[in-house]
């Protein structure tokens, strides 16, 4: 079916990306709180074992974990060195910092719940790392706040993003978040404390706030909602849910005059995904971000997490158009970061393709599997499909549309559709012309032979003339949201 998202993906991509080009390159945030100190340290070179060429100071473990998780989902066996680099970043107490150049030392204050949460998911997806996963889970237990939440770094107030990531990590490690509690408050209790209930304006109900404001009020945040929704729906980065609801996610049911601030856990995922669905529909099937001092721009990261959350919650049909939008517009985000391919963005694209059951070797025309593979050390083994795709697309960095050779079932607007439409129009025009000429021949015959028998007794034997048509292929179009320099994850 030709959706509006597919029709518009190619034509709008240039405009959308032109507007986003002035934004910072990376948009793979885990927490808006993780900002650089006033005097940031000198940029560090990326180790050869790491995915991506950019400074790993603020996102080394984050991007390595996302890359390894996505590749595991694609049945790619990564390099031992790439996996060893990630396990080598873990501190003795089980936590991971964002990055440490000196693995002989570890400052507990720099350990990062977001890095720890995604590292747990990566090692769980790879298998064979239960000791490291178990130590990571124990670190999460030991650094949970008294209200059941997690902060980016230990000792700070919790936030929805970090808490959602922790819940997803626990689920991935087969640990019940309801049983991980501090002072009687479980991980689910902590997550629920950030969700807007019936006391909030109708348009914001079901959303998650990043943190309460100074006066304790909650304000809807797109990325916080997307990451928390995935956790509330019981999932992690590798979405494998096959649940499929018969209807769209149901908005929070609030009786008239209700002042209830919290959302029952049983309704949390539905309420959050209903909010996300409404936001996607209102913004052309993507979420928006508004950084201080900058015009609102498409938020690729939040959109990717929203797709994962919707699918995990059993609403793949509600996520399809947003997945299409990412396929048609995410190439520059993933392939043209400040330092070339952004492995976090490429991994997000691959995770979306896998969750949405779209072709990762032709995701809007781009082979996102090889785009990610080529951003890091050579893998030990790739599946046959990857080997075959590599022979056709060795660098994995083709722009949207350039790799499409069949009717487009991913995203964007394939030229094959135009060819088909042109042929249909041509054939239809030819048939119409033939019918008109046949009708004219009958009329002329009737006028010339008024005494002739009725047509039903003597069928006309004239042959209609053949109609002609032509059609051509249009030229294909080629359609950095991100983080402040100090925070590659924002």
Automatic annotation (TrEMBL):
Keywords: Membrane, Metal-binding, Signal, Transmembrane, Transmembrane helix
Domain Squalene cyclase C-terminal span(s) in chain numbering: 60-151
Signal peptide: 1-27
Record-annotated membrane-spanning stretches: 416-435
Stretches for region Disordered: 384-409, 442-490
Pfam families: SQHop_cyclase_C (PF13243)
Gene3D superfamilies registered for this protein in UniProt: 1.50.10.20
Basic and acidic residues bias locations: 480-490
Record protein name field: Terpene cyclase/mutase family protein
Species name: Kitasatospora cystarginea
High-level lineage: Bacteria, Bacillati, Actinomycetota, Actinomycetes, Kitasatosporales
């Amino acid at each position: 079916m030709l959706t509006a998202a597919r029709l518009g993906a190619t034509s709008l991509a240039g405009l959308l990306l032109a507007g986003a080009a002035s934004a910072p390159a990376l948009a793979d945030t885990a927490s808006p709180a993780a900002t650089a100190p006033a005097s940031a340290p000198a940029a560090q070179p990326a180790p050869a074992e790491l995915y991506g060429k950019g400074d790993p100071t603020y996102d080394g473990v984050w991007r390595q974990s996302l890359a390894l998780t996505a590749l595991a989902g694609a049945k790619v066996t990564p390099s031992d060195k790439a996996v060893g680099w990630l396990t080598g970043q873990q501190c003795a107490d089980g936590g991971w910092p964002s990055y440490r150049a000196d693995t002989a030392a570890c400052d507990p204050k720099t350990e990062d719940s977001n890095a720890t949460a995604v590292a747990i998911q990566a090692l769980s997806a790879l298998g064979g790392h239960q000791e490291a996963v178990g130590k990571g889970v124990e670190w999460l237990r030991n650094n949970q706040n008294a209200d059941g939440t997690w902060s980016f770094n230990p000792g700070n107030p919790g936030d929805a993003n970090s808490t959602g990531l922790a819940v997803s990590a626990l689920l991935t490690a087969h640990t019940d978040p309801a049983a991980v509690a501090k002072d009687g408050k479980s991980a689910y209790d902590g997550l629920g404390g950030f969700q807007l209930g019936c006391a909030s304006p109708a348009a914001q109900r079901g959303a998650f706030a990043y943190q309460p404001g100074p006066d304790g009020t909650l304000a809807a945040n797109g990325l916080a909602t997307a990451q928390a929704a995935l956790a509330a729906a019981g999932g992690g980065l590798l979405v494998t849910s096959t649940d499929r609801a018969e209807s769209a996610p149901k908005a929070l049911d609030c009786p008239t005059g209700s002042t209830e601030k919290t959302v029952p856990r049983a309704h949390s995922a539905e309420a959050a995904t209903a909010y996300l669905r409404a936001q996607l529909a209102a913004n052309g099937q993507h979420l928006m971000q508004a950084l201080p001092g900058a015009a609102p721009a498409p938020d690729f990261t939040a959109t990717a997490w929203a797709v994962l959350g919707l699918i995990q919650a059993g609403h793949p049909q509600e996520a399809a158009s947003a997945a299409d939008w990412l396929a048609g517009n995410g190439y520059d985000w993933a392939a043209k970061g400040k330092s070339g391919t952004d492995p976090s963005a490429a991994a997000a694209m691959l995770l979306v393709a896998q969750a949405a059951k779209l072709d990762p070797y032709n995701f809007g025309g781009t082979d996102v599997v090889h785009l990610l593979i080529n951003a890091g050390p050579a893998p030990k083994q790739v599946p046959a499909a990857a080997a075959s795709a590599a022979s056709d697309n060795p660098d994995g960095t083709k722009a949207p549309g350039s790799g499409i050779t069949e009717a487009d079932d991913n995203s964007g607007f394939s030229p094959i559709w135009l060819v088909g439409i042109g042929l249909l129009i041509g054939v239809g025009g030819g048939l119409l012309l033939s019918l008109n000429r046949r009708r004219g021949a009958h009329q002329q015959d009737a006028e010339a032979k008024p005494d002739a028998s009725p047509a039903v007794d003597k069928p006309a034997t004239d042959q209609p003339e053949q109609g002609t048509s032509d059609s051509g292929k249009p030229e294909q179009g080629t359609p950095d949201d991100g983080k402040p320099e100090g925070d590659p994850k924002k």
